[in-house]
Known about the structure:
A: about 210 residues, alpha+beta, 2 domains, B: mainly beta, 15-stranded parallel β-sheet
Amino acid sequence: MEEDLISKKDLLELKGISYGQLYRWKRKNLIPEEWFIRKSTYTGQETFFPREKILLRVDRIKNMKDDTSLNDLADVFSPDIKGVTSDAAGLVSSGVVSREALDFYMENGANVSGTVDFVRILYVYVLDKAFRTNEVSMDECRLLLKTLEQSYPKFGGKGCAMYFIRKMGAASCMLSLNPPEIYFDENVKVVFRIDLGACVEELKIKL
Amino acid sequence: METRRDLKVNGYMSLSGGIYNDVEVNGGVELSDAVDCINLYANGMININGGLKADYARIKGKAYVKGSLDCGDFIVSGRADIDGGAKVKKLGIEGSAVVKGAIDAEEITVKGEIKSSEGINAESFHGMGRFRIEGLLNADKIRMEIFAGCRVGEMGGQEITVKRSRYRLGRFVGKILRVLFGPGFHDGLLEADTIEGDEIYLEYTDAKIVRGRNVTIGEGCRIGLVEYKDTFRQGHRAIVEQSKKV
């Protein structure tokens, strides 16, 4: 599939940013090298970006840069999630996840005493999000958790999203790489979609 | 923590590399593998058959680093050859630096020559002399005084200024350059594919595309296409084939 692209010029115009800013972000690795796509046009060489990704990324950088330094931002956008840990009590007291979500996670066989590694914080965070939709039952959350635990590590830190769907009352959930191209039959209702890549970025700021 | 010991060489010696506190060389030294030290002072020649890691390194003479350079301040009077890319805070060159790979720095000042086979990232790049940079020179502030035939693949940043050096041979820098490149090298042109920045001032530049907010194309330039947002000024004796406001 040909990805929807935006030229550098249009991006600067649309988002009101300068060349200086864009090059600074590139230097700080806020925008990955592979998003810079060179193409020959009738005016010569031009650089293009994947439209959706770059627009989202620019918005994030602009929204966050007031209270975060660019170097910290670079860590946020790096897909590397190793080495980030936190303790369970701190997670709840700092409001990252709710007590209910953590309790639920522990009831389902997870041992979260002491420090918790990042992946498991992520699971609780996603669970918490699912709870907050008020659309899923406890049983369905168990299904969701099981899916995450079984399949999330297989993506190896790549950006993916979770879909929770329901058909004729029966629930199911799935994980898919971003950007997804999926279509369901008309009886299927997508109850919610959680972007795990975005969750990782949010968590890194909160922790 | 391991204890770091000083290494001092007077004369010529071959040694193995390793972890040191201060390394001082007067004369010449050949190190058979990588060096990790706090401070390095070399007068004469230093050959490292591996990488160099230091907080501060000052070389007067000639240095050859076969691996990568990871350094706080790296100050060279003379010549430095680095084979595995360079990551430094402050790079100060009087003379010549030839880097195979990319250069990642905060501040770069060059009087003489700098070459990189992959590109340069820096907050500020202030250079006087000759530049050969394959790939992208990405710096917030780029200030170049060209003294000889220069070539940069692409340039990007906030403020970009390229001028022909006002120094003539006979001055101190001229002397260095004459020694390095021979006479007649002092009236160069900068060749580039694209130059993009917010504030751009160019002289003696031969570029296919220049894009910017405020663009001034001065004496001796030959530009294929200028795309500007706010203002565009073209000096006399400047050739611009096409310009458009975007």
